[in-house]
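TOPIC: backbone geometry
CONTENTS: sequence, structure tokens:
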Amino acid sequence: MEIERKFTIKHLPENLESYPFYHIEQAYLNTNPVIRVRKEDNNYYLTYKGRGMMAREEYNLTLNEESYYHLLEKADGIIISKKRYMIPLKNPQFKSGSATPPEDYTLTIELDIFDEPLAPLTLAEVEFGSKEAAESFLPPDWFLEDVTYDPAYHNSNLSRAKESK
């Protein structure tokens, strides 16, 4: 089960280049249900995502390079290309009254900076271990709008947003 919230951002964090990152390329074979192929640096995956906005089933299968490129030719819409930074969020804040995590608790912000034709779009995603944690999460001040429940910000829909390359 993938449980995540998604946000637009006000500004990029300082020292962005000091964080680890991946180059991601992905395309969609189907959008309902979501079936995606992804290249993450030199790793290749086929992903199935169930229905839902904040919480949904997700299954990843490893592909080899040949299979990835074969399936990529069958994809609909544009190929999404982005750089994903993995930014630790130490001692994240949660609404009062929710369970208090341990002092050394850290979440990871996955900051996606999209290439053309979706640039200058930048989105931050945070994954959680429970729906309760996701719902009580207080985002850092450099986050802007919570777009978790806006289907326009799902990558599967973004892949169809700008059909021309």
Q: What stands out?
A: The chain has three helices and twelve strands.
